[in-house]
Amino acid sequence: KKDIPLANFIMHEIHCSRNIEVCRYCSELIPKSEIKNHIESEHAQVTCKCRMKIEKCLLKDHEASACPLRPAACQYCDIQLTFNKLQDHEIYCGARTERCGGCSRNIMVKDLKEHPRVCG
């Protein structure tokens, strides 16, 4: 999959067909002597803590952006929760009230950022 001089093409093609294999899972070019190790280390099925089965090479991305058990911080109190519990917590947490120092009214935490505009 690279440009080579025309004079070397036949020798190059022979070398590649003997020594290089295309991975059937990710289409990467892998030396034939390493293909078994590549498949076992990169494409073996593993189980995430959320019990989803996934290829080992995709696990880090899954844990970082898709796993329902990935850590997430509440936007109101910064407590660390699992992502699947975050929405319910933020609904509850944002509905708490705090007293405004300017107007002495109790304001819901979710409205505190916009409150100074209407507080006067």
From TrEMBL:
Keywords from the UniProt entry: Acetylation, Metal-binding, Phosphoprotein, Zinc, Zinc-finger
Give GO BP annotations, semicolon-separated. negative regulation of innate immune response
Please give the Gene Ontology molecular function terms for this protein: zinc ion binding
Please indicate which superkingdom the organism of origin belongs to: Eukaryota
| Occurrences of domain TRAFD1/XAF1 zinc finger (ranges) | 78-120
List cellular component terms (GO): mitochondrion
State the protein's purpose: Negative feedback regulator that controls excessive innate immune responses. Regulates both Toll-like receptor 4 (TLR4) and DDX58/RIG1-like helicases (RLH) pathways. May inhibit the LTR pathway by direct interaction with TRAF6 and attenuation of NF-kappa-B activation. May negatively regulate the RLH pathway downstream from MAVS and upstream of NF-kappa-B and IRF3.
Q: What is this protein called?
A: TRAF-type zinc finger domain-containing protein 1
Instruction: Tell me what organism the protein belongs to.
Output: Calonectris borealis (Cory's shearwater)
Gene symbol of the encoding locus: Trafd1_0
